[in-house]
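From the methods appendix. Each design record in this collection lists the tokenized structure first, followed by the designed amino acid sequence. Records were kept in a plain field format so they could be parsed without special tools. The example shown here is representative of the layout used throughout.

RECORD:
FOLD TOKENS (272 positions):
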């Protein structure tokens, strides 16, 4: 190899080294800024997606809790009200103690039934033994909690929380001559007491308005609710609300008021 060839090779190696050095150069400041902005946009999208999923999950959880609490409260009320007026003895008590019940922004309801004195099954709604035989369970709202207070002693038991309103109407029969066991009208506690129709109560309508524990709506909304004899205006907030309402028949009250079907038929025939 002559001196000229060696010189050409050295020049080629020098150029190749320069090219290699150029390829290994870093990013410019503008490129780094663009990459940073794109990274922030990507992270922001992920955070927004996570936040939206969390909000949807929280809303679904609150709605499920509202449904569960409402159904539980109605099931307890249904069981207790249907027991009203029941007895193992000859004389049955009046199903609803209307004089001890109240009518207001939140109503209260007192259900009575009797079992044999000293029976191990003679328990009130709190699970306490009632030695006298007459069970009286009082349903009322205290500090936003629907609770039941039995007459067997002990503190009241909370059934559900976040109660906006608890309302009760009483189905009464007004056929005085030949009662047929059919409800003629639904009236509140005050009207029942003023018209002396406590012994004519055959069914009960209950309504419970519940709200969520936390804010779940995207925007604040005001609400106007009309149920039974109550009209309730709710200030704008982000809580979700559900109304639960049910009519509960009292079989023992019907039997106590009407008697046997044969007696009803005989009474109707006698009036023809």
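DESIGN:
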């Amino acid at each position: 190899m002559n001196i000229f060839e060696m010189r050409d090779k050295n020049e080629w190696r020098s150029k190749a080294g320069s090219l290699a050095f150029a390829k290994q150069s870093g990013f410019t400041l503008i490129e780094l800024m663009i990459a940073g902005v794109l990274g922030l946009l990507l992270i922001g999208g992920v955070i927004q997606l996570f936040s939206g999923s969390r909000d949807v999950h929280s809303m679904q959880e609150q709605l499920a809790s509202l449904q569960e609490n409402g159904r539980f409260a109605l099931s307890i009320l249904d069981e207790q009200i249907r027991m009203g007026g029941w007895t193992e003895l000859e004389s049955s008590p009046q199903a609803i103690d209307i004089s001890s019940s109240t009518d207001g922004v939140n109503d209260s309801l007192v259900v009575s039934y009797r079992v044999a004195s000293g029976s191990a099954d003679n328990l009130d709604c709190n699970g306490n033994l009632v030695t006298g035989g007459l069970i009286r369970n009082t349903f009322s709202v205290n500090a936003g909690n629907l609770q039941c207070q039995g007459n067997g002693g002990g503190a009241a038991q909370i059934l559900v929380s976040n109660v906006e309103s608890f309302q009760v109407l009483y189905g009464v029969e007004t056929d005085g001559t030949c009662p047929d066991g059919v409800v003629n009208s639904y009236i509140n506690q005050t009207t029942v007491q003023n018209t002396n129709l406590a012994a004519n109560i055959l069914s009960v309508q209950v309504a419970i308005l519940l709200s969520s524990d936390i804010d779940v709506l995207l925007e604040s909304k005001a609400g106007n609710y009309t149920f039974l004899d109550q009209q309730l205006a709710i200030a704008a907030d982000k809580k979700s609300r559900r109304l639960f309402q049910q009519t509960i028949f009292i079989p023992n009250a019907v039997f106590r008021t009407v008697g046997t079907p044969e007696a009803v038929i005989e009474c109707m025939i006698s009036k023809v």
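APPENDIX NOTE: The first strand starts at residue 109 and ends at 114.
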